[in-house]
Write a structure and sequence with these properties.
Number of domains: 2
Structural class: alpha+beta
Organism: Actinomortierella ambigua
Number of helices: 11
Distance between the termini: 72 Å
Bound molecules: zinc ion
Largest sheet: 5 strands, mixed
Low-confidence stretches: 205-250, 278-309
Shape: elongated
Mean pLDDT: 80
Strand content: 15-25%
Number of strands: 15
GO molecular function: protein tyrosine phosphatase activity; protein tyrosine/serine/threonine phosphatase activity
Pfam family, one: DSPc
EC number: 3.1.3.48
Keywords: Hydrolase, Protein phosphatase
Strand order of the largest sheet: 1-2-5-3-4
Radius of gyration: 25 Å
Length: 371
């Protein structure tokens, strides 16, 4: 069988590792299994990203093993700080690092791109182009591309103080709950009562603390929110999914319980959504939708007007510390002080009165809270 030169090139690339930066290599699983190739390149450290697999040469190389599927909803960004550190440490000691997954196309290039982006302050496309010069077959899945973009947007600083990252984690948690029936590591918004206490304490310790923060760079000129985070429920078309908007940054006034006035949620933990399609959205959920349609046709009723209110009768919030029973699929939300019923939550999502779906949903009735 004769192979075209392009096919031969791509086969060659698949079977070899490429040096992306001095000392930093990228490959699929074949070179990682070949001690000959590892020795030839002088590899000392290996970042292994496979579904479930033990290191091939434990004791001979220093491994960092991430058991992660090449799945759009896999949370890779949470690993960026540790993989970046691992790579930087290895290179700093004069070592050579191989980052590999199975094909060397999606998972491992994402990790290499994250390293390049942080080290050289690059945008996603710049890092990707740089990697593709050496390994053209590289193409992270859509979810990983979104995570790389988010990494850039949050200034290469993976931290729950960034609203965008927190919202991403909440979506990841919903996927985890729906897929596995439990949530391993629940990230919750801070109770405004404890936040206030903590802030007061911090101020009293360091009265003149400068608020200008850290070494973390801020490459994003604007904080335009991207809404191309992974779709939540595979069974639901992405268009039906509401965008997790930016928080209403209308000052620090938290939502309060109408009955006892306890502060419930700070404004940056209130999630906005696009008001839905009214009747169309409601029909989406109707179990006997066909019956309604035929009734409408037979009785010659003019096309249904969106008689339902298009205003939102609920606040959607991030899951927050004081909500009880969050490991359940759904439940009630009660005031942590007076116990009056405020709303409901569901990890699979709920529909707002405006017709829009919010997934997951932590919903407070507007009649029960002061906004
Ligand atoms: Zn609404
Ligand atoms: Zn209350």
């Amino acid at each position: 069988m004769e192979l075209t030169s392009a096919a031969m090139d791509s086969a060659k690339i698949l079977h070899e590792m490429q040096e992306i930066l001095p000392g930093l290599f990228l490959s699929g699983v074949i070179p990682a299994d070949s001690e000959e190739m590892l020795k030839e390149k002088g590899i000392t450290h290996i970042v292994q990203m496979t579904d479930v697999r033990l290191p091939r040469y434990p004791g001979k190389y220093l491994y960092k093993v991430l058991c992660v599927p090449d799945w759009e909803k896999t949370n890779l960004i949470k690993h960026f700080p540790e993989t970046n550190r691992f790579i930087a440490d290895a290179l700093g000691k004069g070592g050579k690092v191989l980052v590999h997954c199975v094909a060397g196309a999606s998972r491992s290039p994402t990790i290499v791109c994250a390293y390049l982006m942080k080290e050289q302050k690059l945008k996603v496309e710049e890092a990707l182009e740089f990697v593709r010069i050496k390994r053209p077959l590289v193409g992270p899945n859509q979810g990983f591309m979104s995570q790389l973009q988010m990494y850039y947007d949050i200034g290469y600083d993976v931290n729950t103080s960034h609203t965008q990252y927190r919202r991403f984690l909440i979506e990841s948690m919903a996927v985890e709950r729906q897929t596995f029936g439990y949530i391993n590591d629940m990230v919750l918004a801070q109770d405004p009562m404890t936040a206030t206490a903590a802030a007061a304490a911090a101020t009293s310790i360091v009265p003149n603390a400068s608020s200008s923060s850290s070494a973390s760079p801020s490459p994003a000129e604007s904080t335009t929110t991207t809404t191309n985070t992974p779709a939540l429920n595979p069974a639901r078309p992405p268009v039906a999914r509401p965008a997790m908007g930016r928080p209403a940054s209308a000052g620090p006034r938290p939502l309060k319980c109408k009955k006892c006035r306890r502060a419930l949620v700070s404004r940056d933990a209130v999630i906005t959504h696009f008001p839905g399609q009214g009747q169309a959205s409601f029909q989406y959920r109707k179990r006997d939708g066909t019956l309604h349609v035929s009734e409408a046709v037979q009785s010659n009723i003019s096309p249904i007007q969106p008689a339902v209110s298009t205003t939102c009768q609920s606040y959607f919030i991030e899951p927050i510390e004081w909500i009880q029973g969050l490991h359940e699929l759904e439940g009630k939300i009660s005031c942590p002080k007076c116990d009056s019923k405020l709303g409901t939550f569901s990890w699979v999502g709920e529909q707002c009165s405006c017709g829009s779906w919010v997934t997951p949903a932590f919903m407070l009735h507007k009649g029960k809270v002061d906004g």
